[in-house]
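Worked Example 4.2. Consider the chain below.
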Amino acid sequence: MRLVLLTALTMVAFAANSILNRMALAGGHIGASDFGTIRLFAGAVMLAALCLVLRRGLRLGGPARIVGVLALLVYIYGFSLAYGALDAGLGALILFGTVQITMFAGGLLSREAMPARRWLGAALALSGLVWLLWPTGPVQVSVRHGLFMAAAGVGWGIYSLAGRKADDALQATAANFILASPVGVVIGLALPVDAVEIALPGVALAILSGAVTSGMGYALWYSVLPRLDASVAAVAQLTVPVIAILGGMLFLGEVLEAKTVLASALVLGGVAVSVLRRRG
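Applying the procedure from the previous section yields the following structure tokens:
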């Protein structure tokens, strides 16, 4: 039960990242690349401080470190670039669909046992997500931006797979953020300049996203990943868009529709079928 609660808390942190990002960009408070860079640095500072206080030092090495750093960078900047043209719903669909494919592939390559109910649950949850997030009008997808989001999904899937090898979740996450930050500055400078001026609310939201819901949230994710099968971790993340929609209702005044309720129930039901074990 404790593992389920920790995983659920992590999914709430991931959903909060989407809400904070949406609040900052939709409000015109900051550009996408600036948000990503500040988010990365805020996470690095918070995690470094926690390591110095709780671990009495920093350890930047460890298993799969280079993979973790590169995957984190691909995720953060692929995500930022993609939302320059993609709808929030379609972007989330591409992201989490790609994450699921990447992590299922990782599980298969590591010869992880995948019972039929896990495949069935994953299919149900993914179909619910498609129904929930697919645009109702004509779909016009920028291939370039769609590829950016697909790259972000692969990056996050690989980042999660690398986290299963972490022996100290806090140190591993701190090392990823700290080593990624200087590279992030170079990437941020190389990206096209955002036409949006940086305002204090945007900076505050980026810091909150980086320090709390990304830095601490990812450390929590790394703490539960070694105890989850790759396929289970992949399916669990399909709940994030559902939680983000509920958060949008609470914090952004978004309207709840019958389709949202039914599709969300399908996603959560599919996750339950895939993740929960039979007794007896």
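The mean pLDDT is 86. The chain has one domain: 2-115+144-229. Compare this with Example 4.1 before moving on.
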